[in-house]
Amino acid sequence: MQTKAIYTGSFDPLTNGHMNIITRAARLYDELTVGIISNPSKVPQFPIEERELMIAEALESIPNVRVDHFSGLLADFVNRNGFNVVVRGLRGGSDFEYELQMAQMNARLFNDHVETVFLMTDPQYSYISSSVVKEVHALGGSIKGLVPDPILRRMDEKLRSR
Ligand code: COA
Q1: What is the pLDDT of residues 25-83, one digit of tens each?
Q2: Most buried of 17, 18, 61, 117, CB within 10 angstroms?
């Protein structure tokens, strides 16, 4: 069976913590889609189309990964596109409660034979989130090594243009 996985998030911006999950998931599954979604509870720094371009640039060396974006229910996107695995990353215990609730709700909504699979983030990335990286960068701190270089370049450009 072809394994078609999706890893979703706001990715505003994509960090090296996300990269860690993506490179490992890409080794496990035949195809991996990075699915960007606007989270209505967050005001984005980069519009979704720009995020898609930035992420595609950061991932261009991984052949079985593609980038897409969607709105609405994750389960609808998964069912419509025939994904059989939804990958989520866990940074620590505090992610678990929320992830369990989402995975169980999604399980009701997914077609048969779709599984949510959790990968533990490598420990050097467990403290990273998109918001903390954005905040440090906006206040002049170095985030080199915390986001892929093409993403850092775009963040620098955005900051200079303000
Ligand atoms: N490395 C670094 N940071 C990570 C990470 C990792 N491995 N995993 C998560 N994070 C960070 C994210 O960057 C994000 O940071 P932020 O809050 O500062 O932006 C934070 O942890 C939370 O990540 P996540 O839970 O993936 O939130 P998100 O907003 O990126 O994505 C969706 C949430 C899109 C996955 C979820 O809201 C969704 O599926 N929505 C679709 C609507 C739907 O179906 N709703 C019903 C669900 S049951």
Answers
A1: 999 999 999 999 988 888 899 999 999 999 999 999 999 999 999 999 999 999 999 99
A2: 18
Active site residue 134: no
User: Nearest residue CA, atom 11 of ligand 1?
Assistant: 129
Based on the residue annotation, tell me whether 27 is a catalytic residue of this protein. no
Domain edges within the chain: 4-160
Phi first, then psi, for residue 61 (nearest 5°) are -85, 0
d(CA 131, CA 114) in angstroms, rounded, equals: 30
Angle at the Cα of 96 from the Cα atoms of 98 and 105, rounded to 5 degrees: 45
CB 51, CB 31: distance < 8 Å:
no
Distance 123 CA to ligand 1 centre (A): 18
C-alpha angle 104-4-56 in degrees, rounded to nearest 5: 105
13 lines ligand 1 (CB under 6 A): no
CATH number, domain 4-160, options 3.40.50.620, 3.40.50.720, 2.10.110.10, 3.30.830.10: 3.40.50.620
pLDDT of 1 > 90? The answer is no
Cα(9) to centroid(ligand 1), Å: 4
User: What does DSSP assign to residue 13?
Assistant: T
Query: Can 91 be counted among the known catalytic residues?
Result: yes
